[in-house]
Design goal:
The structure is a single chain. The chain is an alpha/beta fold and 297 residues long. It has one domain: Ribonuclease Z/Hydroxyacylglutathione hydrolase-like (Metallo-beta-lactamase, Chain A). The chain has ten helices and 14 strands. The strands form two sheets. The protein has a seven-stranded mixed β-sheet. A seven-stranded mixed β-sheet has the order 7-8-9-10-11-12-13, with helices on one face. Helix 2 links the parallel strand 3 and strand 4. It starts with a strand and ends with a strand.
């Protein structure tokens, strides 16, 4: 199985257009070593022919163009089979509208996500006016065949983050995915949004070969400390990396070959290659995703 990190930043990308935090300034001026990143999404394949997208970011056009494996021999784009959604946030779904020129689009989403995207934002109804859209219901805990050589199993990710649209069920509002290569029985877990790493969620990581996990903020008070927002990382639905109940303390002891932070906010100092926070991750053998990173499992 192959995984391509199409985008590794949180919503807004890095640098974010309206932000002048230390990381964004460094990215614009070159004052410190760092690389720009687009908004979070990955592609997976068992054969490098059929590819499946996990989340469709607003940057999907340049992400697809930057990855030749998604192009047919005649130069057209036709190898994206379907899109699996981890939530209904705009930074994970707005790219669906940019895929409207396709002949057909298959969207895997929970009932809660479908309710939000169909009657809340109306995104799926708008998309359906341009191309046929098939909704595949995602049921946490159920194994699903995904093309040739892959299966997935979603798991529910509880969240108390305030819902932007009324009416959606809380169960299934956010999910993670375990993608398995049926030929090797090896798997990855993709979890770009998680508010708390409960024992139940940690159990979902057992036996996986790679963990791609929420790296939005380094500290819980990151945004308030910079004067950029009043909400903490957990308020926004993301467990911070640092701290006694942060993700680093919980995942670093796990026997997983590759542990990689994705969905990294522009305010997070791990985006700076020479930051103490980045060095701390390196000492604990935890990686920071960059756009274009490829992983073979």
């Amino acid at each position: 199985m192959w995984i391509r990190i199409l985008g590794s930043a949180a919503g807004g990308g890095f640098p974010q257009w309206n932000c002048a935090c230390p990381q964004c300034r460094a990215a614009r001026t070159g004052a410190r070593p760092c690389v720009p990143r687009s908004q979070s999404s990955i592609a997976v394949s068992a054969n490098r022919q059929e590819w499946f997208l996990l989340n469709a970011s607003p940057d999907v056009q340049r992400q697809v163009e930057s990855f030749p494996d998604l192009h047919n021999d005649d130069g057209s784009i036709g190898r994206l089979q379907s899109v699996l959604l981890t939530d209904s946030e705009l930074d994970h779904t707005a790219g669906l509208l940019l895929m409207r020129e396709g002949r057909e689009l298959q969207v895997h989403a929970t009932k809660s996500m479908y309710q939000t995207l169909n009657t809340g934002t109306g995104l799926l109804r708008i998309l359906g006016a341009y191309c046929p859209v098939t909704w595949k219901a995602v049921v946490p805990g159920v194994d699903v065949d995904l093309g040739e050589g892959l299966t997935y199993r979603a798991f529910n990710v509880p969240t108390t983050k305030a819902a932007r649209f009324e009416g959606a069920d809380n169960y299934g509002r956010v999910v993670g995915y375990r993608i398995t290569d049926t030929a090797t029985d090896r798997s990855i877990v993709y979890l770009p949004s998680v508010q708390q790493l409960t024992p139940q969620i940690l159990e979902e990581f057992a036996g996986c070969s790679a963990l791609l996990i929420d790296g939005t903020c380094w500290s819980d008070d990151e945004m308030p400390a910079l004067g950029l927002a009043g909400k903490t990382s957990r308020d926004m639905g993301h467990v911070p990396i640092s701290g006694p109940r942060g993700s680093l303390a919980l995942i670093s002891p796990l026997p997983i070959k590759r542990k990689i932070y994705v969905h990294i906010n522009n305010t997070n100092p791990i985006l700076l290659d020479d930051s103490p926070q980045r060095l701390q991750l390196e000492r604990q053998a935890v990686e920071v995703a960059t756009d274009g990173l490829e992983i073979e499992i």
